[in-house]
Amino acid sequence: MTDQITVSVLGTGIMGAAMARNLARAGHTVRAWNRTRAKAGPLTADGITVTDSPAEAVQEADVVLTMLYDGPAALDVMREAAPALRSGAVWAQCTTAGIEAIGDLAAFAHEHGLVFYDAPVLGTRQPAEAGQLTVLAAGPADHRDAVAPVFDAVGARTVWTGEDGGAGSATRLKLVANSWVIAATAAAGEVVALARSLDVDPEEFFGLIEGGPLDMGYLRAKAGLVLDDRLTPAQFAVATAAKDARLIVEAGRRNGVRLDVAAASAQRLERAAAQGHADEDMAAAYFASFDENA
Fold it and tell me: Domains of the chain by range and CATH?
């Protein structure tokens, strides 16, 4: 396989669109599909072919990259693409799918002769647009040269976690990482909400912890989105974060761990979504601290 390959990107939301653009900038031929075609339309300006169906998108693809809402969505779309999938093609499954779904996706890949990589990514809109994601990847070592051009185009770093994509080692690491991201975001929203409710300027709090062990760049970044009313466009949307939080809680439950913070964070995110903040940055979970009619 040459360095320039044909890549099909299925799912062009916040992350998928940015990944498709970076693949095109790297010189690859990119064909993209999205359930809502209008969201994929702007990609044509980057030389990307936007198709009407998953099957059309995957024709002649060396690598198929899925970046969809969850595991069942990825499986449904790949079933739609099945008639046109080329045996021996690589499938880089980048959706945060959850541990249970990975087995189903790997089984589909085996059934259709695809080389399967469990490859969720760590990062949000900004690093995705800059091609600076961290790719967490598991899959066969003897095909890594085929998928490396894709990972190199969308990410700054690839962390290999194993050779069996179906075992879900990359997804397990992603859930652990996201558990920290979600907990930190929930804490950032609550500290701002509490400060305001107590008539404390949040900047007083930031000044208090500045430079010490309690200070954290991520805290300041997420709190800043709330304080400066910069919740759109989302870096990582409330609705998607709520889905991930539920996957984390379920993964813990199945393995004998009770994750109270993750469960509470899921409830906060779902409450914020119900209040109309589903498409805003996950920092908008801040609003779940208040009555929706306030």
Answer: 6-167 (3.40.50.720), 172-289 (1.10.1040.10)
